[in-house]
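Design a sequence for this backbone.
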């Protein structure tokens, strides 16, 4: 059974900075101790948990009441020129999803592809074919986890909200990971109350209430230029309009996980949770 969250949860991207003896286990305990709800396993460079270890992580997360998500590897391009690179990308997605599932995780997100100067439409079709294959294989093996292509921050990267929502409509077990900071950076817009409202309205139109009840969100401050994302910033050192975004979350009564991706990790995750709690 796929996990469905009962409220909007807040968590860290990786192990909190103030974790003594940093490890996944100690990170989960620290997240609980801080009063946060979730932690994203950072498999961005490599999947640093093996099959034997995963059930232990699952046990600790259950005991500490911490929801886990995972971020797949950066070295993924489902639109690579070389066939082997596409196969390697599919395997990376499957491996991260499998280990995340064995850790009891709710969902697995990743950056799907680069356009490589090709038509977005044909790139979409390639990404869709690969994802269909990947999710089918995962399902056949019983690895029941939401697979979530993410809205990306650079214009050269595949991953507009429209593309990600369409994949979610067309492929079973695929749902969006919406990184609002990336959407802001890639469009140099999407940072006002009305725009956030439009974005969530679009999610609702395409995926229904189900979409709003099953969100995996990334949020941080962000530095950007003409090509989009440059680097993440702490929220209060950026122009990210988190206050209006949180209000819109509240109005749409969304459920799911918000992962704070600021460099200060737990500081902004806690800040977001606190600010969200204050909204009437
Ligand atoms: Zn990401």
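Sequence:
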């Amino acid at each position: 059974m796929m996990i469905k969250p009962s409220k909007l949860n807040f968590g860290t991207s990786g192990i909190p900075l103030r974790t003594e003896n940093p490890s996944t286990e100690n990170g989960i305990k620290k997240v609980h101790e801080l009063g946060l709800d979730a932690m994203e396993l950072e498999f961005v460079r490599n999947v640093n948990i093996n099959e034997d270890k995963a059930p232990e992580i699952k046990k600790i997360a259950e005991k500490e009441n911490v929801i886990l998500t995972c971020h797949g590897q950066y070295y993924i391009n489902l639109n690579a020129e070389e066939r082997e690179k596409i196969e390697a990308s599919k395997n990376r997605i499957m491996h991260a999803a499998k280990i995340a599932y064995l850790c009891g995780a709710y969902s697995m997100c990743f950056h799907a592809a680069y356009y490589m100067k090709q038509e977005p439409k044909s790139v979409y079709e390639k990404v869709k074919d690969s994802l269909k294959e990947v999710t089918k294989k995962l399902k056949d093996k019983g690895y029941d986890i939401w697979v979530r292509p993410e809205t990306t921050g650079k214009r050269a990267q595949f991953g507009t909200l429209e593309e990600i929502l369409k994949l979610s409509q067309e492929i079973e077990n695929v749902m969006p990971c919406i990184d609002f900071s990336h959407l802001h950076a890639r469009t140099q817009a999407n940072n006002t109350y009305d725009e956030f409202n439009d974005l969530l309205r679009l999610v609702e139109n395409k995926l229904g209430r189900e979409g709003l009840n099953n969100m995996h969100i990334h949020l941080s401050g962000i530095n950007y230029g003409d090509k989009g994302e440059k680097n993440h910033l702490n929220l209060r050192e950026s122009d990210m309009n988190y206050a209006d975004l949180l209000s819109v979350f509240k109005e749409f009564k969304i459920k799911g996980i918000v992962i704070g991706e600021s460099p200060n990790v737990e500081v902004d995750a806690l800040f977001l949770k606190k600010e969200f709690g204050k909204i009437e």
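The chain is about 45% helix and 15% strand.
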